[in-house]
Amino acid sequence: MKSILPITTVSIVIVILWYGFSVVLNSTWTKDQANRAGVEVTFSEILKDTMVQQRPLLPAPHQVIIELWDTTVNKKITSKRSLVYHGWITLSATLLGFVIGTGLGVLLAIGIVHNKAMDYGVMPWIIASQTVPILALAPMIIVVLYSIGLSGLVPKAIISAYLSFFPVSVGMVAGFRCPDPTQMDLLKTYAAKKSQLFWKLRVPISMPYLFTSLKIGVAASLVGAIVGELPTGAVAGLGARLLTGSYYGQTVQIWSALIGSAILAAVLVGFIGLIQKHTLNRMGLAR
Amino acid sequence: MNSNVAMDAEPVIQARNLGLVFQTKDSPVEALKDVNIDIEQGDFVSLIGPSGCGKTTLLRIIASLDKPTAGDITVNGMTPEEARLQRAYGYVFQAASLYPWRTIAGNVKLPLEIMGFSKTEMNERVKKVLDLVHLSGFENKFPWQLSGGMQQRASIARALSFDADILLMDEPFGALDEIVRDHLNEQLLDLWKSTRKTICFVTHSIPEAVYLSTKIVVMSNRPGKVVEVIESSLPRERPLDIRDSPEFIEIAQRVRTGLRMSHSYE
Ligand SMILES: Nc1ncnc2c1ncn2[C@@H]1O[C@H](COP(=O)(O)OP(=O)(O)OP(=O)(O)O)[C@@H](O)[C@H]1O
Ligand SMILES: [Mg+2]
């Protein structure tokens, strides 16, 4: 609980800065309006106006919170206006992509640590795969999959898997390579099989790496799912909320979708953190 | 376990002109040269010599963890590798090297899991060997919750758990205080007498070597060589106060002289 103080301090600082920027950025519009009407505005009038604009350049925090509250608590979750509804659409693609990406990442890591040819042959491609901007790749993936009859959840999940397998595979290669020579020699003296070396040494020793990779991977998955919603002009999902928000200049909606996805990411990462804490505690690795 | 009656005649471990040169980046290191030893069934052999004289290396070759670059060696009449695959020995490393994510009981269980013992058998054996090294009650502790000496005892228990006929021990009691060391020395002698295991034991302590061994191999530095093999005339039955007997002191004297010689090589 020692973390409460620093966290609140930082949050308060962020909120204060946010309000500051809202005032500064939104005041331009207020002044323009006043100029056009030929009236003088006082500082307190500017202050007041910048907090309540319909389409502010940067919505004030309380506007975003009200919008968030309104679109989650006050709407039925089946409604197209509910952020929970859109969140779930994105979340389901995120989770599917995360599972695929994690599985693929772990499998690749297993192959790479056990096979020299794979180490030299596959590792460069894994790294190269992430140098291609996903924004350029996403529309192509969607189009190609659409042509073979796949649309909706699966293409988005694949884009999110594309982003999440990378941290998992790189992290797990490092994790599986952790055992030091003595730890390996010990198993050798028992004439342990390769599979036993894997399950009794490589897997447990890589656990801290696994959880760290999963945390990065799940956040990347969420980004992937949202990016996957952009090029299709999707009608549902957090990405769609961002898109329609920007079509109609609904900055409050954009920001609430942004904050909503940040909260979602925090929840996902936090959940993995809980499992991590529990597992590492039980393994005596969390001191 | 007791299938060695027929093989009594031939040595359990036999090395002829054994040598090992490590190829390092700057220059080759000759860790062992022309090593000849015969270890009979039931022998308790101590390797003693200055730091870096190749004691660990010799033990690792016997265990087939390193390969010699010259000479021949057999373990139980086979190559060390074949013997390893038959799980002929238990090895106690110079550092305890327990797996930090396993409890003490879990660490002792590790070889048993790998060798496919049944659950009940595992639990019985874990209890027995932890009793032997006086670690009962620490089953569910993690290694880092134990002192260095206790960790080392756990690693001895682990090597004993599957009851191999040969024990290879690399300075197992180096980190222990005098009293616990005496105690474990007695314990190890008891175990050796009752099981007729063949033990190969590295130590830096002359009294320990003399107290435990039937054969003391004195080694020298650069290159690692055997300078002298001293056969002990002490009886198998050895109370702790045998260390004050003239016979004991005489053997210790000979080991010391051998060690002096080995140091003067530098
Ligand atoms: N893997 C290795 N690569 C290169 N040189 C090595 C290697 N292992 C050991 N050596 C060298 O071989 C020599 C013998 O080492 P070894 O560990 O067998 O000594 P030791 O007698 O066990 O010493 P200590 O009493 O300090 O444990 C040393 O000079 C060491 O530097
Ligand atoms: Mg050594």
Could you characterize the architecture of this molecule?
- The complex is a heterodimer of chains A (287) and B (266).
- Chain A has 2 domains: 55 residues; 200 residues, MetI-like fold.
- The mean pLDDT of chain A is 90.
- In chain A, helix 1 crosses helix 2, helix 4 packs antiparallel against helix 5 and helix 6 crosses helix 7.
- Chain A has 12 helices and no strands.
- The longest helix of chain A has 34 residues.
- Chain B is an alpha/beta fold and 266 residues long.
- Chain B has 2 domains: 185 residues, Rossmann fold; 62 residues, no CATH class.
- In chain B, 36% of the residues lie in helices and 22% in strands.
- Chain B is built from 8 helices and 9 strands.
- In chain B, the strands form 2 sheets. Chain B has a 6-stranded mixed beta sheet, with helices on both faces. In chain B, strands 2-1-4 form a 3-stranded antiparallel beta sheet.
- In chain B, helix 3 crosses helix 4.
- The longest helix of chain B has 19 residues.
- The termini of chain B are far apart.
- The N terminus of chain B is likely disordered.
- Chains A and B meet through helix 8 and helix 9 of A and strand 5 and helix 3 of B.
- Adenosine-5'-triphosphate binds next to strand 2 and helix 1 of chain B.
Number of beta strands of chain A? 0
- Mean pLDDT across the residues of chain B is 89
- Highest CATH level, the class of the largest domain in chain B: Alpha Beta
Order of helices and strands of chain A: HHHHHHHHHHHH
Q: What small molecules are bound in this structure?
A: adenosine-5'-triphosphate, magnesium ion
- Spatial gap, N to C terminus of chain A: 16 Å
The number of distinct helices of chain A, counting runs of at least 4 residues, comes to 12
CATH architecture type of the largest domain in chain B: 3-Layer(aba) Sandwich
- First CA to last CA of chain B: what distance? 44 Å
The CATH architecture name of the largest domain in chain A reads Orthogonal Bundle
The CATH homologous superfamily of the largest domain in chain A: MetI-like
Query: In this structure, how is the largest beta sheet of chain B organized?
Result: 6 strands, mixed
Give the overall shape of chain A, derived from the CA principal axes: elongated
Q: What proportion of the residues of chain B form beta strands (DSSP E)?
A: 15-25%
Which spans of chain B have pLDDT < 50 for at least 5 consecutive residues?
A: 1-7
